[in-house]
Amino acid sequence: PPLNFGLVAPGIYRSGMPGRNSVAYLRRLGLRTLVRLVDGPAYPPAVEEWIAAAGVAVIDCRVGTNREPLVAMDGGALAEALAAAQRPERQPVLVHCLRGQRETGVLVGCMRQQQRWSLVATFDEYRRFAGSAASLLDLQTIELF
């Protein structure tokens, strides 16, 4: 599986950028959609070939990154990505950023808020995937979404 892969909800997965070594794994999931949250390198050729052959839709939702002092994620793009991931006709869906840590963690955290998870459980899940990249601004974004 790709870096930081995990099941978020039935039909919704999270991870870092899919690489050539993860194509066979992703193929077995029967994905219909990839929701890409960040600018970054293009997909490797093997991933591009799988996307084309399987007819997987790619939705680009450049949410940006929270950074001190005054740079915040794009709330509109975050809401768009969240809606795209939750549409049954798009599932199974994989939501990813470059490493599956911060941007993906914020999106999943916002989904957990909609699912009425406690903030403690939501923040714990975010920190498990974000590791040392965890950001207080990301936690604030989740809480205020």
From TrEMBL:
<protein>
    <recommendedName>
        <fullName>Tyrosine specific protein phosphatases domain-containing protein</fullName>
    </recommendedName>
</protein>
<dbReference type="GO" id="GO:0016791">
    <property type="term" value="F:phosphatase activity"/>
</dbReference>
<dbReference type="InterPro" id="IPR004861">
    <property type="entry name" value="Siw14-like"/>
</dbReference>
<dbReference type="InterPro" id="IPR029021">
    <property type="entry name" value="Prot-tyrosine_phosphatase-like"/>
</dbReference>
<dbReference type="GO" id="GO:0005737">
    <property type="term" value="C:cytoplasm"/>
</dbReference>
<dbReference type="Pfam" id="PF03162">
    <property type="entry name" value="Y_phosphatase2"/>
</dbReference>
